[in-house]
Amino acid sequence: MKYIIMNISRVDRDIDDHMSVQAIIQYYQVRGHLTAQLDPLGMISANIQSPLHSVTSSSPHAVLATHNLDETDMDRVFRLSLNTRIGGAGVSALPLREILTRLEGAYCRHIGVEYMHINHSERRQWIRERFETPDAGHLSLDAKRTLLARMTRAHRFEEFVGAMWPTEKRFGLEGCEVLIPAVKAIIDASTGAGVECIVMGMAHRGRLNVLANVCGEPLDRIFGRLRGVEPPADDEGSGDLVYHLGTTRELITRCSNKSVQLTLVANPSHLEACDPVVEGVTRAEQFNRGDSKGGKVMALLLHGDAAFAAQGVVYETLQMSALAEYSTHGTIHVVVNNQIGFTTDPRAGRSSTYCTDVARALNAPVFHVNADDPEAVHYVCGVAAEWRHRFAGDCVVDLVGYRRNGHDERDDPTLTQPVMYAKIGRQVSCWERYRRRLVAENTVSEAYARELHDRYDTILTDAYERAERAAAMVSNNDWSDRPSSGFFGTGRCELTPDQPTGVAEDVLTHIGTLFGSPPPGDFAIHPAIARILASRLEMIENRSVDWTVAEAMAFGSLLKEGVHVRLSGQDVERGASGHRHHVLHHQTIDETTYRPLCHLYPDQAPYTVCNSPLSEYGVLGFEYGFSMATPNALVVWEAQSGDFLNVGQCIVDQYVSSGEAKWGLRPGLVLLLPHGMEGMGPDHSSARPERLLQLSNSDSDVFPATIDERRQLRDINMIVVNCTTPANYFHMLRRQIGLPFRKPLVVLAPKSLYRHPDATSRFDDMTPGARFAPVIPESGPAGQSAQHVKRLVFCTGKTFYDLVSARSAKHLDRDVAIVRVEQLSPFPFAAIRDELRKYPNADLLWSQEEHKNQGFWAYVRPHIECVLRHLHLSHKMLGYAGRAIKK
After folding, report:
1. CATH number of the domain within which 30 lies
2. Tens-digit pLDDT profile for residues 570-588
3. What is the pairing mode between strands 823-825 and 719-721?
4. Does pTM surpass 0.85?
């Protein structure tokens, strides 16, 4: 009996020990990255504030003690579970000593892998195979030589530019030059998997090096901008700093020998603002190529560590990654981790363990890697590209390096990080370390390494000598990442502003009838929807439209003409005010819908209507990017309420209003902004038109010598309208596509007009011969006896209906004329001139519902006064009628 008990105890201990070994394996898989040797400086731990650090040790002996094993167990053989690949093919058991050695090699050297948070067991196992399998990461001799050549170019470029422009801001890559071979490794692996187009975004750090050594931008053009060479005298636009500029190039990759289109999207100083723009461009390129799985087009985003952790738009962009109408089927994020943000170290810059922790919310793997180990970086980047290709999901490569200089080359970093920069001053460059390593292992000779260096140095010197002449021949538009040649002034888009945008009545009737008809078959609709559809059919019978039907007719007629329409935003499918209902929901079968505008014609263009996440900054940036790459599509973003634009203002400032001047971008994005004092508090319904109009480049001091509406539209930076009739809204949307150029369009439209009984239009206002009216004159009794009118009131938007009601109540129909300014930017000088001439005896007022220091007054007043000076009527004053200044 005693013998049996002892035998059972021995069995129990064997079981316990095997379970301990399995726990050790999982311990490394979960926490190994916390003790990986990621920091090239060996001084700032990546796990800055990690509570796990206190219970994580890099010592295998400490791990043993934690799991009730000791040195006497090191040579015992233990079976390996199915959740590890450290044994390799055909090996099911190993001595504990070898198990620990292999785990240390896989998880605690220069690569730290975070992946155990991923919910899919298949994907976790896939990562184990890439990092636990013996000899993972081994490079061939040719691959090592290619890697050295790329490191040489990356290093020597920064060295050369630093020597030639020692005091110029360039935001060099010194300390993380491995970014260049990292990106090229991703491109090689991705093109080898079939990718034909890569859309890239990044901030300024290392941008010149990426332009030169990744995108293949001619060096003489880059150097010319650094030398301050002015573009041609007839160049348009302000241009931008060279480390903000973008490009599009067609290249043949060296390793895969395949053609790839590389686009580096222009970026403002707002570090991560380009992220959603890149995703939008990528999605549009996938749409254009019929790439429904993302196998041909992919996004590649390069980030800084401080910005990736702190900028909210990063999370907004990540949240779109798996949404049906926003997904780009996986983005590879590469973080250039300098372990510092300007002068702020990570302990003051984030609360999370890593700068990349935000990506864990998406089940994305994070590959931390020591940026001073080019081979580890190369391997990780190949795995990242393979992950994206296989699983169509995001992943992150965290290049943990350092920043050799200050925030820019004129900054002294020792003022705030003296200890770090004393260490950096003694740090041998990554290129030099790798060169010595390959020479020591006889992969290359000293002469071979020197030849690589000298050959590229000659290329740099020759380019410098050509720079002045080459740059003088390059315009600002030549740096555009979205070249517009082949579109403007060609094909279908030959409409001039004075040409009609009306549509045949049978087309309007067809679209309106289908839009107002119930779905075919046994589709069960909500009773309220049935009433709405019936009211639409009644309108069609009466040859009239409200705001919603006019919008549907504009969309439907464009779809008939082959124009893709994309409507995106919060609750746009139903409409935030419950007015649109472009997606009908089956009342008894979940996820069963019907989209009437998708079934108008058998050969119509696609109609995409999609509710967005509760994001403005990210989604507005996405749609801006989508419109950049689809100039022949009508791309519309709608804010749920006007004040929601506040959160997307960065995109308006940095892209919508200024993208053409800075980078030659000409997207036709439409912004629908509900605006008006709708009883929802002082802010909720305000789209802040004063901000938008302040961003307009309409000149209020000069009356145009020649009134040419088309030229006005071409020269403006963005169009701002505040329509009062459904017909004018209809024509505005159609004009947006009909023009031979693209401009951003902002449409202010109060929600109250969606259902206002007087805000209707007749078919006659939308049929052939009709067009958009920038100004709508008085059409009542006052307009018929203009000489006797005592007051001429200018207004815009829903204020018109309030004024008409008040005028009627006070019986002033013959004394007061009301003129609607439908288009604010560009300002309709000619139409306003004609109205002022028509009423010579009237005093003048501008009326608005907004407070005096908001709304349109500050913009309209100098423009109308300019017209008065032109008419030699400077003695006339424009009065103000509206709310007083808001305190």
Report:
1. 1.10.287.1150
2. 999 999 889 999 999 999 9
3. antiparallel
4. yes
